Amino acid sequence: MFIFEQRFMETRHFLSQGRENKNGILGSNIVLRLNSTPYDITNLTFFNGDIGDGEWQKGEVGIGRQKRPFQLSLYKEPAEDYFGRFAVDETSFHQSCHYPDPSDNGCLISEFHCQLTKVCILTEKLCDLNDDCGENEDEAVGECLGYHFFTFEDSKWQEWFSQGKDGIDDDFDWTLWSGSTDILGTGPNFDHTTSSYAGHYMYLETSHPQQYNEKAWLVSYLIIAGPDCTITFYSHIYGTSIGSLTVLIRNESQSDTASILAVNTNGNFWVKQTLAPTLLPQKRPFNLIIEGKVGEKELGDIAIDDFAFSPDCRLYGQPDRNCTLEEHECSDGTCLPLKSRCNFVADCPNGDDSDEIGCVSQKCTFEGQDLCHWEIKANQQSLIHAPQTDTFTWKLLRGEDPVDNEEQLSFKPDVDHTHGNGSSYFVFTSASEGQYESAT
Protein backbone atom coordinates (compact mmCIF):
# COMPACT_ATOMS: atom_id res chain seq x y z
CA MET A 1 0.00 0.00 0.00
CA PHE A 2 1.23 3.48 -0.85
CA ILE A 3 0.65 6.36 1.56
CA PHE A 4 1.00 9.97 0.46
CA GLU A 5 1.50 12.41 3.33
CA GLN A 6 1.53 16.16 3.15
CA ARG A 7 1.24 19.18 5.43
CA PHE A 8 -0.97 22.00 4.26
CA MET A 9 -2.51 25.27 5.40
CA GLU A 10 -5.16 27.65 4.10
CA THR A 11 -6.06 31.27 4.73
CA ARG A 12 -9.48 32.27 3.54
CA HIS A 13 -12.07 35.00 3.25
CA PHE A 14 -15.74 34.62 2.37
CA LEU A 15 -17.97 37.21 0.72
CA SER A 16 -21.01 35.35 2.00
CA GLN A 17 -21.01 33.42 5.25
CA GLY A 18 -24.23 31.65 4.28
CA ARG A 19 -22.96 29.55 1.39
CA GLU A 20 -21.87 25.94 1.92
CA ASN A 21 -20.09 23.56 -0.38
CA LYS A 22 -20.97 19.93 -1.13
CA ASN A 23 -19.47 18.80 2.15
CA GLY A 24 -21.83 21.05 4.09
CA ILE A 25 -18.77 23.11 5.08
CA LEU A 26 -17.95 26.69 4.17
CA GLY A 27 -15.11 27.06 1.72
CA SER A 28 -13.53 25.73 -1.46
CA ASN A 29 -12.37 22.18 -2.19
CA ILE A 30 -8.80 21.23 -3.03
CA VAL A 31 -8.67 17.85 -4.79
CA LEU A 32 -5.64 15.54 -4.79
CA ARG A 33 -5.74 13.51 -7.99
CA LEU A 34 -3.87 10.52 -9.39
CA ASN A 35 -3.29 10.59 -13.14
CA SER A 36 -2.20 7.37 -14.87
CA THR A 37 -2.89 8.87 -18.33
CA PRO A 38 -4.11 12.34 -19.36
CA TYR A 39 -7.63 10.90 -19.45
CA ASP A 40 -7.68 8.47 -16.52
CA ILE A 41 -8.00 10.52 -13.34
CA THR A 42 -8.86 9.24 -9.87
CA ASN A 43 -9.75 11.68 -7.10
CA LEU A 44 -7.79 10.56 -4.04
CA THR A 45 -8.93 12.98 -1.36
CA PHE A 46 -10.48 16.39 -0.74
CA PHE A 47 -9.32 19.25 1.49
CA ASN A 48 -11.95 21.85 2.28
CA GLY A 49 -12.26 25.33 3.78
CA ASP A 50 -12.79 24.03 7.31
CA ILE A 51 -9.20 22.87 7.80
CA GLY A 52 -8.22 25.81 10.00
CA ASP A 53 -7.44 29.41 9.14
CA GLY A 54 -3.69 29.92 8.72
CA GLU A 55 -2.71 26.70 10.53
CA TRP A 56 -0.63 23.84 9.19
CA GLN A 57 -2.55 20.56 9.06
CA LYS A 58 -1.35 17.04 8.35
CA GLY A 59 -3.10 14.90 5.77
CA GLU A 60 -2.44 11.44 4.37
CA VAL A 61 -4.10 9.27 1.77
CA GLY A 62 -3.63 5.76 0.41
CA ILE A 63 -2.78 5.58 -3.28
CA GLY A 64 -3.27 1.83 -3.63
CA ARG A 65 -1.41 -0.63 -5.84
CA GLN A 66 -0.47 1.16 -9.07
CA LYS A 67 0.81 -1.02 -11.90
CA ARG A 68 1.53 1.86 -14.26
CA PRO A 69 3.52 5.09 -13.93
CA PHE A 70 1.41 7.87 -12.47
CA GLN A 71 1.41 11.52 -11.45
CA LEU A 72 -0.17 13.29 -8.49
CA SER A 73 -1.75 16.71 -8.93
CA LEU A 74 -3.61 19.23 -6.79
CA TYR A 75 -6.70 20.85 -8.29
CA LYS A 76 -8.61 23.76 -6.76
CA GLU A 77 -12.35 23.74 -7.41
CA PRO A 78 -13.62 27.25 -8.20
CA ALA A 79 -15.98 28.98 -5.76
CA GLU A 80 -17.54 32.37 -6.52
CA ASP A 81 -17.79 33.55 -2.91
CA TYR A 82 -14.41 32.27 -1.74
CA PHE A 83 -10.99 33.91 -1.71
CA GLY A 84 -8.02 32.27 -0.03
CA ARG A 85 -4.58 30.74 -0.32
CA PHE A 86 -3.69 27.08 -0.07
CA ALA A 87 -0.11 26.01 0.67
CA VAL A 88 1.55 22.58 0.69
CA ASP A 89 4.83 21.63 2.35
CA GLU A 90 6.81 18.52 3.33
CA THR A 91 5.27 16.02 0.93
CA SER A 92 6.53 12.47 1.28
CA PHE A 93 5.81 8.89 0.31
CA HIS A 94 6.07 6.30 3.04
CA GLN A 95 4.95 2.86 4.27
CA SER A 96 5.74 0.36 1.50
CA CYS A 97 6.29 2.90 -1.26
CA HIS A 98 8.60 0.38 -2.92
CA TYR A 99 9.10 -3.35 -2.82
CA PRO A 100 11.97 -4.93 -0.86
CA ASP A 101 15.30 -5.43 -2.59
CA PRO A 102 15.60 -8.71 -4.54
CA SER A 103 17.36 -11.60 -2.82
CA ASP A 104 19.27 -14.29 -4.71
CA ASN A 105 20.23 -16.09 -1.49
CA GLY A 106 16.81 -17.39 -0.53
CA CYS A 107 14.56 -16.24 2.31
CA LEU A 108 13.89 -17.02 5.96
CA ILE A 109 11.68 -19.96 6.92
CA SER A 110 8.90 -17.50 7.76
CA GLU A 111 9.14 -15.90 4.31
CA PHE A 112 8.06 -16.65 0.75
CA HIS A 113 10.50 -16.14 -2.13
CA CYS A 114 8.80 -14.43 -5.08
CA GLN A 115 9.99 -16.26 -8.19
CA LEU A 116 9.83 -13.36 -10.66
CA THR A 117 10.83 -10.35 -8.58
CA LYS A 118 13.11 -12.33 -6.20
CA VAL A 119 11.90 -10.41 -3.14
CA CYS A 120 11.08 -12.02 0.21
CA ILE A 121 7.70 -11.48 1.86
CA LEU A 122 6.15 -12.89 5.04
CA THR A 123 4.15 -16.07 4.42
CA GLU A 124 1.15 -14.45 6.13
CA LYS A 125 0.91 -12.17 3.08
CA LEU A 126 0.21 -15.08 0.74
CA CYS A 127 -3.26 -15.39 -0.80
CA ASP A 128 -4.74 -12.25 0.73
CA LEU A 129 -5.76 -10.48 -2.52
CA ASN A 130 -2.88 -8.03 -2.22
CA ASP A 131 0.08 -8.01 -4.63
CA ASP A 132 3.02 -8.07 -2.22
CA CYS A 133 5.54 -9.60 -4.65
CA GLY A 134 5.14 -7.07 -7.44
CA GLU A 135 4.18 -9.58 -10.13
CA ASN A 136 1.31 -11.15 -8.17
CA GLU A 137 3.21 -14.41 -7.56
CA ASP A 138 1.92 -14.48 -3.98
CA GLU A 139 -1.65 -14.60 -5.34
CA ALA A 140 -1.04 -17.17 -8.10
CA VAL A 141 -3.27 -20.21 -8.55
CA GLY A 142 -0.54 -22.66 -7.55
CA GLU A 143 0.00 -20.93 -4.20
CA CYS A 144 -3.67 -20.30 -3.45
CA LEU A 145 -5.29 -23.57 -4.48
CA GLY A 146 -8.40 -24.20 -2.38
CA TYR A 147 -8.86 -20.58 -1.27
CA HIS A 148 -12.19 -18.82 -1.71
CA PHE A 149 -11.91 -15.22 -2.92
CA PHE A 150 -14.64 -12.55 -3.20
CA THR A 151 -13.86 -9.14 -4.67
CA PHE A 152 -17.34 -7.68 -5.38
CA GLU A 153 -16.39 -7.46 -9.06
CA ASP A 154 -18.97 -10.17 -9.76
CA SER A 155 -21.75 -12.00 -7.90
CA LYS A 156 -19.51 -14.72 -6.38
CA TRP A 157 -19.74 -13.09 -2.93
CA GLN A 158 -23.40 -14.13 -2.83
CA GLU A 159 -22.33 -17.78 -2.63
CA TRP A 160 -21.10 -17.08 0.93
CA PHE A 161 -22.90 -13.91 2.06
CA SER A 162 -26.30 -12.26 2.02
CA GLN A 163 -27.63 -8.95 3.31
CA GLY A 164 -29.14 -8.99 6.80
CA LYS A 165 -32.93 -9.05 7.08
CA ASP A 166 -34.14 -5.48 7.57
CA GLY A 167 -36.19 -5.07 10.72
CA ILE A 168 -35.01 -8.46 12.04
CA ASP A 169 -31.21 -8.56 11.83
CA ASP A 170 -30.54 -4.91 11.00
CA ASP A 171 -32.01 -1.61 9.82
CA PHE A 172 -30.73 -1.22 6.24
CA ASP A 173 -28.36 -2.83 3.70
CA TRP A 174 -24.75 -2.43 2.70
CA THR A 175 -24.40 -0.62 -0.66
CA LEU A 176 -22.43 -2.01 -3.61
CA TRP A 177 -20.48 0.93 -5.07
CA SER A 178 -17.59 2.09 -7.24
CA GLY A 179 -15.62 5.34 -7.31
CA SER A 180 -16.09 8.06 -4.69
CA THR A 181 -18.97 7.99 -2.25
CA ASP A 182 -21.63 10.69 -2.61
CA ILE A 183 -20.34 13.01 0.12
CA LEU A 184 -16.84 14.39 -0.51
CA GLY A 185 -14.24 13.71 2.15
CA THR A 186 -15.84 10.48 3.36
CA GLY A 187 -15.40 6.87 2.31
CA PRO A 188 -12.99 5.54 -0.32
CA ASN A 189 -12.46 6.98 -3.80
CA PHE A 190 -11.44 3.62 -5.29
CA ASP A 191 -11.70 -0.05 -4.40
CA HIS A 192 -8.96 -2.30 -3.03
CA THR A 193 -9.05 -4.89 -5.83
CA THR A 194 -8.15 -2.63 -8.74
CA SER A 195 -7.15 0.63 -6.98
CA SER A 196 -9.31 2.46 -9.55
CA TYR A 197 -12.62 4.28 -9.68
CA ALA A 198 -14.04 1.41 -11.80
CA GLY A 199 -13.60 -1.28 -9.10
CA HIS A 200 -16.38 -2.23 -6.68
CA TYR A 201 -16.69 -2.41 -2.90
CA MET A 202 -19.40 -2.45 -0.23
CA TYR A 203 -19.96 0.61 1.93
CA LEU A 204 -22.20 1.84 4.71
CA GLU A 205 -24.30 4.78 3.52
CA THR A 206 -24.62 7.01 6.59
CA SER A 207 -26.58 9.94 5.14
CA HIS A 208 -30.37 10.49 5.36
CA PRO A 209 -32.60 8.54 5.96
CA GLN A 210 -30.15 6.54 8.13
CA GLN A 211 -30.04 7.58 11.77
CA TYR A 212 -27.46 7.42 14.57
CA ASN A 213 -26.61 3.88 15.73
CA GLU A 214 -28.62 2.14 13.02
CA LYS A 215 -26.79 -0.88 11.64
CA ALA A 216 -26.32 -2.94 8.49
CA TRP A 217 -25.31 -6.60 8.47
CA LEU A 218 -23.55 -8.70 5.86
CA VAL A 219 -24.24 -12.27 7.01
CA SER A 220 -22.44 -15.40 5.84
CA TYR A 221 -24.15 -18.71 5.40
CA LEU A 222 -23.16 -21.29 8.02
CA ILE A 223 -19.40 -21.89 8.06
CA ILE A 224 -17.32 -24.74 9.47
CA ALA A 225 -13.82 -23.67 10.52
CA GLY A 226 -11.00 -26.18 10.71
CA PRO A 227 -7.90 -25.62 12.87
CA ASP A 228 -6.17 -23.65 10.08
CA CYS A 229 -9.14 -21.58 8.91
CA THR A 230 -8.11 -17.94 8.42
CA ILE A 231 -10.27 -15.15 6.99
CA THR A 232 -8.96 -11.83 5.70
CA PHE A 233 -10.67 -8.76 4.28
CA TYR A 234 -9.95 -5.05 3.82
CA SER A 235 -11.65 -2.10 5.51
CA HIS A 236 -11.75 1.63 4.80
CA ILE A 237 -13.03 3.89 7.59
CA TYR A 238 -12.83 7.59 6.86
CA GLY A 239 -14.62 10.80 7.82
CA THR A 240 -15.21 13.17 10.71
CA SER A 241 -18.12 11.28 12.27
CA ILE A 242 -17.44 7.55 12.20
CA GLY A 243 -19.76 4.90 13.60
CA SER A 244 -18.28 1.43 14.10
CA LEU A 245 -17.23 -1.67 12.17
CA THR A 246 -17.46 -4.95 14.09
CA VAL A 247 -17.09 -8.62 13.16
CA LEU A 248 -19.55 -10.91 14.95
CA ILE A 249 -20.15 -14.65 15.08
CA ARG A 250 -23.58 -16.19 15.62
CA ASN A 251 -24.25 -19.82 16.55
CA GLU A 252 -26.28 -22.17 14.38
CA SER A 253 -29.49 -21.72 16.38
CA GLN A 254 -29.10 -17.90 16.17
CA SER A 255 -29.53 -17.72 19.94
CA ASP A 256 -26.13 -16.20 20.71
CA THR A 257 -24.05 -13.51 18.97
CA ALA A 258 -20.57 -12.43 20.07
CA SER A 259 -18.06 -9.83 18.90
CA ILE A 260 -14.64 -11.15 17.83
CA LEU A 261 -13.11 -8.03 16.22
CA ALA A 262 -13.69 -4.28 16.54
CA VAL A 263 -12.00 -2.38 13.70
CA ASN A 264 -10.63 0.95 14.95
CA THR A 265 -8.28 2.09 12.18
CA ASN A 266 -9.51 5.42 10.78
CA GLY A 267 -7.89 6.93 7.69
CA ASN A 268 -8.18 7.42 3.96
CA PHE A 269 -6.63 4.07 3.02
CA TRP A 270 -7.50 0.38 2.86
CA VAL A 271 -6.36 -1.74 5.84
CA LYS A 272 -6.07 -5.52 5.97
CA GLN A 273 -8.05 -7.26 8.73
CA THR A 274 -7.27 -10.85 9.74
CA LEU A 275 -9.49 -13.31 11.60
CA ALA A 276 -7.04 -15.89 12.96
CA PRO A 277 -8.10 -19.49 13.74
CA THR A 278 -8.08 -18.70 17.48
CA LEU A 279 -10.96 -16.24 16.96
CA LEU A 280 -13.23 -18.73 15.20
CA PRO A 281 -15.32 -21.56 16.71
CA GLN A 282 -13.85 -24.95 15.88
CA LYS A 283 -16.04 -27.67 14.32
CA ARG A 284 -19.26 -25.81 15.23
CA PRO A 285 -21.30 -24.13 12.46
CA PHE A 286 -21.53 -20.36 12.76
CA ASN A 287 -22.52 -17.26 10.81
CA LEU A 288 -19.86 -14.61 10.23
CA ILE A 289 -21.43 -11.14 10.43
CA ILE A 290 -19.88 -7.87 9.25
CA GLU A 291 -21.71 -5.13 11.17
CA GLY A 292 -21.48 -1.43 10.37
CA LYS A 293 -23.14 1.24 12.53
CA VAL A 294 -24.00 4.85 11.69
CA GLY A 295 -22.19 7.63 13.57
CA GLU A 296 -23.69 10.80 15.02
CA LYS A 297 -23.41 12.70 11.72
CA GLU A 298 -23.34 11.69 8.06
CA LEU A 299 -19.71 12.72 7.44
CA GLY A 300 -18.19 9.27 7.86
CA ASP A 301 -18.47 6.18 5.64
CA ILE A 302 -17.30 2.61 6.26
CA ALA A 303 -16.31 0.31 3.37
CA ILE A 304 -15.18 -3.32 2.99
CA ASP A 305 -13.62 -5.26 0.11
CA ASP A 306 -11.71 -8.40 -0.92
CA PHE A 307 -12.55 -11.37 1.32
CA ALA A 308 -10.23 -14.41 1.35
CA PHE A 309 -11.12 -17.70 3.09
CA SER A 310 -8.30 -20.23 3.50
CA PRO A 311 -8.88 -23.87 2.40
CA ASP A 312 -9.70 -24.99 5.96
CA CYS A 313 -12.82 -22.76 5.92
CA ARG A 314 -15.85 -24.24 4.18
CA LEU A 315 -19.57 -23.78 4.02
CA TYR A 316 -21.56 -26.07 6.32
CA GLY A 317 -22.77 -29.10 4.38
CA GLN A 318 -19.97 -29.05 1.82
CA PRO A 319 -17.69 -32.11 1.76
CA ASP A 320 -14.25 -31.94 3.35
CA ARG A 321 -11.44 -31.15 0.96
CA ASN A 322 -9.77 -34.34 -0.29
CA CYS A 323 -7.86 -33.04 -3.33
CA THR A 324 -4.09 -32.73 -3.44
CA LEU A 325 -2.16 -29.53 -4.11
CA GLU A 326 -1.69 -30.82 -7.68
CA GLU A 327 -5.46 -30.86 -8.24
CA HIS A 328 -8.29 -28.34 -8.48
CA GLU A 329 -11.26 -28.95 -6.19
CA CYS A 330 -14.72 -28.22 -7.58
CA SER A 331 -17.55 -26.95 -5.38
CA ASP A 332 -18.96 -30.48 -4.96
CA GLY A 333 -15.57 -31.93 -3.97
CA THR A 334 -14.65 -33.32 -7.39
CA CYS A 335 -10.88 -33.27 -7.98
CA LEU A 336 -9.51 -32.27 -11.37
CA PRO A 337 -5.89 -32.33 -12.58
CA LEU A 338 -4.35 -28.86 -12.76
CA LYS A 339 -4.17 -29.15 -16.55
CA SER A 340 -7.96 -28.68 -16.48
CA ARG A 341 -7.46 -25.18 -15.08
CA CYS A 342 -7.72 -22.34 -17.58
CA ASN A 343 -8.38 -24.48 -20.66
CA PHE A 344 -11.48 -22.47 -21.70
CA VAL A 345 -13.73 -25.38 -20.72
CA ALA A 346 -15.73 -25.60 -17.47
CA ASP A 347 -14.72 -29.15 -16.49
CA CYS A 348 -16.35 -29.17 -13.04
CA PRO A 349 -19.79 -30.85 -12.91
CA ASN A 350 -23.20 -29.25 -12.32
CA GLY A 351 -22.42 -25.97 -14.06
CA ASP A 352 -19.56 -25.11 -11.67
CA ASP A 353 -17.03 -22.93 -13.54
CA SER A 354 -14.54 -22.53 -10.68
CA ASP A 355 -11.78 -24.14 -12.78
CA GLU A 356 -12.00 -21.16 -15.16
CA ILE A 357 -12.20 -18.35 -12.58
CA GLY A 358 -9.22 -16.00 -12.64
CA CYS A 359 -8.12 -17.23 -16.08
CA VAL A 360 -7.55 -15.36 -19.31
CA SER A 361 -10.90 -14.64 -20.95
CA GLN A 362 -11.76 -16.21 -24.30
CA LYS A 363 -12.92 -12.79 -25.47
CA CYS A 364 -11.32 -9.51 -24.45
CA THR A 365 -12.38 -6.08 -25.72
CA PHE A 366 -9.98 -4.17 -23.41
CA GLU A 367 -12.82 -1.85 -22.34
CA GLY A 368 -12.19 -0.02 -19.07
CA GLN A 369 -8.48 -0.86 -19.54
CA ASP A 370 -9.26 -4.46 -18.56
CA LEU A 371 -6.54 -6.82 -19.78
CA CYS A 372 -8.73 -9.86 -18.94
CA HIS A 373 -5.85 -11.41 -16.92
CA TRP A 374 -3.31 -11.01 -19.74
CA GLU A 375 0.02 -9.46 -18.72
CA ILE A 376 2.12 -7.03 -20.76
CA LYS A 377 5.87 -7.62 -20.82
CA ALA A 378 8.72 -6.37 -23.01
CA ASN A 379 11.91 -8.29 -23.79
CA GLN A 380 10.78 -10.96 -21.31
CA GLN A 381 11.07 -8.46 -18.45
CA SER A 382 8.41 -6.96 -16.21
CA LEU A 383 7.41 -3.40 -17.06
CA ILE A 384 6.60 -2.37 -13.51
CA HIS A 385 9.55 0.02 -13.40
CA ALA A 386 9.72 0.81 -17.13
CA PRO A 387 8.97 4.31 -18.42
CA GLN A 388 5.90 4.88 -20.56
CA THR A 389 7.97 6.18 -23.49
CA ASP A 390 10.96 4.78 -25.40
CA THR A 391 9.97 1.20 -24.61
CA PHE A 392 8.73 -1.22 -27.26
CA THR A 393 5.65 -2.60 -25.55
CA TRP A 394 1.92 -2.99 -25.89
CA LYS A 395 -0.08 -0.07 -24.47
CA LEU A 396 -3.76 0.37 -23.73
CA LEU A 397 -4.89 3.30 -25.86
CA ARG A 398 -7.94 4.93 -27.38
CA GLY A 399 -8.25 6.57 -30.76
CA GLU A 400 -8.52 9.98 -29.10
CA ASP A 401 -5.41 9.49 -26.94
CA PRO A 402 -2.22 11.39 -27.88
CA VAL A 403 0.94 9.49 -28.88
CA ASP A 404 4.60 10.24 -28.31
CA ASN A 405 5.56 11.23 -31.86
CA GLU A 406 4.14 11.98 -35.31
CA GLU A 407 5.33 8.67 -36.75
CA GLN A 408 3.15 6.76 -34.29
CA LEU A 409 0.18 9.01 -35.06
CA SER A 410 0.16 7.99 -38.72
CA PHE A 411 -0.17 4.29 -37.80
CA LYS A 412 -2.39 4.37 -34.69
CA PRO A 413 -6.09 3.57 -35.39
CA ASP A 414 -8.56 6.41 -34.87
CA VAL A 415 -11.30 4.04 -33.64
CA ASP A 416 -11.43 0.67 -31.90
CA HIS A 417 -12.91 -2.48 -33.48
CA THR A 418 -15.48 -3.23 -30.76
CA HIS A 419 -17.48 0.00 -30.88
CA GLY A 420 -15.96 1.87 -33.80
CA ASN A 421 -15.35 5.05 -31.82
CA GLY A 422 -12.40 7.01 -30.50
CA SER A 423 -13.27 6.63 -26.80
CA SER A 424 -12.97 2.82 -26.55
CA TYR A 425 -9.77 0.89 -25.87
CA PHE A 426 -7.43 -1.31 -27.89
CA VAL A 427 -3.80 -2.41 -27.40
CA PHE A 428 -1.19 -0.72 -29.57
CA THR A 429 2.56 -0.85 -30.05
CA SER A 430 4.86 1.12 -32.33
CA ALA A 431 8.08 -0.13 -33.93
CA SER A 432 9.47 3.40 -33.67
CA GLU A 433 10.06 2.78 -29.95
CA GLY A 434 11.96 -0.49 -30.40
CA GLN A 435 15.25 -1.82 -31.62
CA TYR A 436 16.09 -4.83 -33.78
CA GLU A 437 14.76 -8.04 -32.14
CA SER A 438 12.89 -6.14 -29.43
CA ALA A 439 9.91 -8.19 -28.27
CA THR A 440 6.73 -7.58 -26.34
Low-confidence stretches: 1-5, 12-27, 380-389
Write down the Rg: 24 Å
Q: CATH fold name of the largest domain, please? A: Jelly Rolls
Q: Just name the CATH architecture of the largest domain.
A: Sandwich
Q: Given the structure, what is the number of helices?
A: 1
Quote the distance from N terminus to C terminus.
28 Å
The total domain count is 4
Global mean pLDDT: 81
Strand element count:
27
- Relative helix content: under 10%
Beta-strand percent range:
25-35%
Order of helices and strands: EEEEEEEEEEEEEEEEEEEEEEEEEEHE
Net shape: globular
Name of the level-1 CATH class of the largest domain:
Mainly Beta
Structural class: mainly beta
The description of the largest β-sheet is: 6 strands, antiparallel
Pfam families: Ldl_recept_a, MAM
Protein name: MAM domain-containing protein
InterPro entries: ConA-like_dom_sf (IPR013320), LDL_receptor-like_sf (IPR036055), LDLR_class-A_CS (IPR023415), LDrepeatLR_classA_rpt (IPR002172), MAM_dom (IPR000998), MAM_domain-containing (IPR051560)
Domain MAM: 151-315, 362-440
